């Protein structure tokens, strides 16, 4: 289209489109303009969407942050996203699963910056159109490495992205499928990690009993393939479960054990399919556990630690840590400080597509409402409500997420 034709197509002024093209990648779009562009993409032909997706894939490879969600992404989108193996960690040459490992790593990195709402379609598309055909091929046709492990890792990733968009039931379905695949592939570290994922969702749904069962089952899987990082995560999840049911002695014991185990580097190598659980990951889990116990100062200390360890591009991780800190600060009556932290969260979370973040922001809003007589608090609450309103439309519709719920693997 010409600039005038495109402007008419969107129902905006030609000068606006001219300004966009003049500013190139530095353009700052209004939310109303972003919405019109997203709607235009949804109505576009498959050829136009494919060209858009190719451009977006190039942006992701360059580390840029796309402004639009790809709910209409084509089936081959994730295949085109896959970087060359040398873009990530060193991989064994001629390893048949190396492209899968590279794709998993790339999508995890993009997810940490953008949120699950943007990439769910890409992950499920890769599962359906790249991995599923290999899963249903004759086992004799498999190369040295069968496709069960990447399918399990990618299915677990789909579960986390569904969880991030607020689809906790769908996330649980993905995790159970991932567990079946991981067990079948004898990737015991991955099986243990998936059980940790199930434990996390159970805690989110306020089901601490189920969470404790899943975390302990994960520890049993690790007996066959020890991994200090995964075990530390499972122990911290147990600590959160014990905090929820007021089992204080067990809570303290699991916290200390998680910290001790995490420092043990003598155990077996980490599976390439398992997410890294680093010091910042442990700190945020401990912060969540102490917040549940009501130990606000200790929870705040660990949340602050996360901010010193996480770079700004890890937007979602930093947002969760700051939201924990916000709750602690509000609970201690430091509302002016809470507004400063809250503004920083809104600034850093601008590019995120995460319903979980938006829900946490709404909780913070409710906690601050009794203090809205303070002009600073009132002003921040207005910014918070506007942020939630503008970002909620970036989350894919629930019906779109459920469209994959009956698919395999």
Description:
- The protein is mainly alpha-helical and 409 residues long.
- It has a domain at 308-409.
- The chain has helices at residues 3-10, 14-23, 31-43, 46-61, 77-81, 98-114, 116-135, 148-164, 168-184, 188-204, 208-222, 228-244, 248-262, 279-293, 296-309, 315-331, 335-348, 355-368, 375-392, 398-402.
- It starts with a helix and ends in a 7-residue tail after the last helix.
- 45% of the residues are buried.
- The model is unreliable at 61-97 and 397-409 (pLDDT under 50).
Can you write the helix and strand succession as a string?
A: HHHHHHHHHHHHHHHHHHHH
Mean pLDDT, to the nearest integer, reads 81
Helix share of residues? 55-70%
Largest sheet: number of strands, sense, barrel closure: none
Strand content: under 5%
Radius of gyration: 22 Å
Oligomer: single chain
How is this fold's topology laid out?
Blueprint: H1 3-10, H2 14-23, H3 31-43, H4 46-61, H5 77-81, H6 98-114, H7 116-135, H8 148-164, H9 168-184, H10 188-204, H11 208-222, H12 228-244, H13 248-262, H14 279-293, H15 296-309, H16 315-331, H17 335-348, H18 355-368, H19 375-392, H20 398-402
Helix pairs in contact: 1-2, 6-7, 6-8, 7-8, 8-9, 8-10, 9-10, 10-11, 10-12, 11-12, 12-13, 12-14, 13-14, 14-15, 14-16, 15-16, 16-17, 16-18, 17-19, 18-19
């Amino acid at each position: 289209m010409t600039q005038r034709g495109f402007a008419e197509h969107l129902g905006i002024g030609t000068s606006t489109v001219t300004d966009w093209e003049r500013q190139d990648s530095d353009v700052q779009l209004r939310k109303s303009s972003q919405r019109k562009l997203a709607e235009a993409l949804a109505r576009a032909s498959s050829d136009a969407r494919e060209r858009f997706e190719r451009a977006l894939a190039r942006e992701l490879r360059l580390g840029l942050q796309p402004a639009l969600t790809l709910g209409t992404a084509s089936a081959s989108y994730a295949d085109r996203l896959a970087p060359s193996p040398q873009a990530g960690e060193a991989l064994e040459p001629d390893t048949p699963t190396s492209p899968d490992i590279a794709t998993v790593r790339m999508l995890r990195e993009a997810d940490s910056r953008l949120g699950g709402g943007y990439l769910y379609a890409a992950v499920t598309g890769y599962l359906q159109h790249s991995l599923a055909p290999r899963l249903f091929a004759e086992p004799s046709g498999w190369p040295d490495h069968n496709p069960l492990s990447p399918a399990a890792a990618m299915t677990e990733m789909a579960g986390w992205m569904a969880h991030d968009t607020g689809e906790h039931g769908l996330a649980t379905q993905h995790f159970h499928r991932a567990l079946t695949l991981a067990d079948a592939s004898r990737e015991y570290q991955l099986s243990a990690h998936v059980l940790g994922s199930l434990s996390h969702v159970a805690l989110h749904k306020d089901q601490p009993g189920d969470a404790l069962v899943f975390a302990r089952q994960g520890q049993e899987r690790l007996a066959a393939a020890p991994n200090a990082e995964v075990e530390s995560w499972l122990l911290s999840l147990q600590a959160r479960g014990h905090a929820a049911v007021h089992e204080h002695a067990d809570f303290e014991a699991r916290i200390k054990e998680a910290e001790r185990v995490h420092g043990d580097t003598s155990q077996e190598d980490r599976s390439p399919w398992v997410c890294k659980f680093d010091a910042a990951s442990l700190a945020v889990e401990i912060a969540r556990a102490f917040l549940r116990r009501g130990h606000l100062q200790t929870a705040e200390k660990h949340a602050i630690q996360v901010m010193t360890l996480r770079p700004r591009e890890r937007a979602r991780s930093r947002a969760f840590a700051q939201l924990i800190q916000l709750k602690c600060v509000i609970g201690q009556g430091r509302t002016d400080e809470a507004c400063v932290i809250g503004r920083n969260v809104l600034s850093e979370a601008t590019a995120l597509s995460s319903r979980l973040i938006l829900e946490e922001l709404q909780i913070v809003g409710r906690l601050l409402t009794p203090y809205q007589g303070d002009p600073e608090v009132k002003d921040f609450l207005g910014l918070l409500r506007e942020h939630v309103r503008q970002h909620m439309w970036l989350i894919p519709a629930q019906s779109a997420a459920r469209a994959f719920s009956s698919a395999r693997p």
